[in-house]
Structures are given as structure tokens and as C-alpha cells.
Design brief:
Radius of gyration: 19 Å
Bound molecules: nicotinamide-adenine-dinucleotide
Order of helices and strands: EHEHHEEHEHEHEEEEHHHEEEH
Oligomer: single chain
Strand content: 15-25%
Strand order of the largest sheet: 3-2-1-4-5-6
Largest sheet: 6 strands, parallel
Amino acid sequence: MAGGMIQSRSVAVVGAGSVGVAAASTMLVQKTASEILLVDKDASRAEGHAMDLMHGQALVGRADVRAASFADLAAAQVVVIAAGRNQKKGESRLDLLRGNAEIVTSIVEELDRHAPEAIVLVATNPVDILTRVAVKRSRRPAARIIGTGTTLDSARFRALIGAELGVSPRSIHAYVLGEHGDSQVPIWSQASFGGVKVDLDGTQRTRIADATRTAAREIIARKGYTDLAIGIVIAHLVRAILADERGVHPLTVPLEGQLDLRNVCMSMPCILGREGIMRVLEPKLDAEEVAALRTSAGVLQRAERAAGLA
Ligand SMILES: NC(=O)c1ccc[n+]([C@@H]2O[C@H](COP(=O)([O-])OP(=O)(O)OC[C@H]3O[C@@H](n4cnc5c(N)ncnc54)[C@H](O)[C@@H]3O)[C@@H](O)[C@H]2O)c1
């Protein structure tokens, strides 16, 4: 867990459902911020969660957790968007597109009015297309709008590789890039630990890539939604922004010629700091991975067009 309280830091979470509250709870426990504001169209739900979390203060240290409205967000340095519908059993993330695009658009308009300087971190699915919607609808610079992208998938990927090798996942350097969804691309060519290439056979690779890709579906089949690991991911990214960490994270960003791709948002490794995305990295990939990432971009572009959002 990261160190002490970051002083005078205000974070807002829009959407106090399972994901938003898991993120708020992790941020409280990890002392990521001194103020956590919960905004939900169901104001009493936000209030109930804020009251519940406040009772943890005596044990974890003082932080102000409150239900809020958009008008209260002027001081928020980071605003997390976790509002909107989640997948039901058998649905893909792309099935959520139309409804959640309307929700994200209305939230981004409110944020431009009330928190124009904040870094916006989008978690609502399908996160890649909704990050693009947010970038197009907002007046803030694109570097200040980020999607959680394949950060969660990469965490799952590293956990599975670590388990296979008997090495801590924290020491595994490996990324899943492209869509946070079914066309995601595990980057085996660059997976390493301690400078040693991760050298697994085809069967092991297929098993790990499949388990990474279908993880959400498997969890939803059992508990109905996913929230805990994405809550940890969101808290981790918020801290990286507030502390100006400048670490590398696979995040949803607009591509501007990387892999010869444009007019699409999807995950590439990015350097993340206080001002948002500082640099989009273009790792050396093998030909199959490049082709798979172009296919992933095509999937996203077609879904965006089919929903009338392009
Ligand atoms: N990015 C990821 O890796 C990842 C992982 C898991 C879930 N998700 C996504 O996160 C989103 C939230 O999932 P959940 O399980 O928390 O859903 P949920 O139904 O538990 O919560 C959604 C909340 O959003 C609120 N809401 C809806 N419209 C709103 C608006 N216009 N303004 C303010 N609040 C509004 C609802 O009242 C509800 O409290 C889903 O789209 C889900 O697919 C993303």
C-alpha cells in the first residue's frame, strides 16, 4: 500500500454504485485523498454510502467523505466517472454503449461547467468508446481525460503469469493493450520479470490469455457484477495522478498515429502524472500483435459507428 495521506486532495466519484463505492472505500483505506465526494443521481444512495464510509475514519484516519452535487466539485483534482449500467449475464461491454454514452455525455457537460480543471478518469463501460465520447464532448484538453482501459486486464494478466511462474505479480512486467473487452491483445513479446523473458508454451499462453479475457464474464456469472479489483485499480490511478508519479499504465487514450491508427481510443502504455497523460508510449511489438491491435481498433470503430456516435 502506498504511504501517508496526500494532504488537501479532493477526489470526486460520479456514480456511487458498486464500482464507485469500491473505489471510494479503497481510497479511504489507502488515504489517497483528504476529501472524497460521492455524486449519484440517487442522492440518498450516495449519502448512505458516505455515512457508512465515514464510520471507518476512527480506524484509518480523518478524511471527509460526503454526498455531493456537481456544483460542489470546483475543488476536485480528479473526477472518476463510474456511473451507468453494468453488464448482465451474457452481455458484452459493447451492449451497454448507447445508454451509457448518454449518461457520460451529460456528466462531462456538468464537469465542464463545475470542474473544468479536473483530470477525468472514466471507468464506465464500454470504457474505450466512452472515453472517446468524453474527449469529443469536453472542452478540456484530451490529456486530461483518461479511461481505465486495460489496467484491470493487465493486472489480471500479471496475476495469472505470476501464479504460473511462482513469482509475485508485482515483479511481472506485462501488458494487455487494445480494447478493454473481447478483442484485447496480450503482449507476450514484451512480458518479462527481472529482465528475463516470460517463456511459456502455447497451451499455457492460451489458458492465461483466455482467463484474462473472460475474467469479468466468469465473475459476473457468480456474483452478478465486478467491483473490487476495479476499485483498487481506480484508487491506484488516482494516487498516481495526485502524487504526480509518472509511472507507466495501460490506459485508454486517443491514438494519434501510433500503429498508424487515428480516430479511436484504446489502451496503450502511458506515462501518467498530475497533468494527466504525459506521454503515450509505442512499445516494440511483433507483427501478430500489431495486426491484433489494428483489429481491436476496428472493432471499436465499428461499434461506435453502429451506435451512431462516430
Ligand atoms: N473499466 C472497468 O474495468 C470496469 C470494471 C467493472 C465495471 N465497470 C463499469 O462501471 C460502471 C458502473 O458499474 P456498477 O457495477 O457500479 O453499476 P451500478 O449499477 O452498481 O452503479 C451505477 C450507478 O450509477 C448511477 N448513475 C446512473 N446514471 C447516473 C448519472 N447520470 N449521474 C450520476 N449517477 C448516475 C446509478 O444511480 C448507480 O448508483 C458500469 O458501466 C460497468 O460496466 C468498468
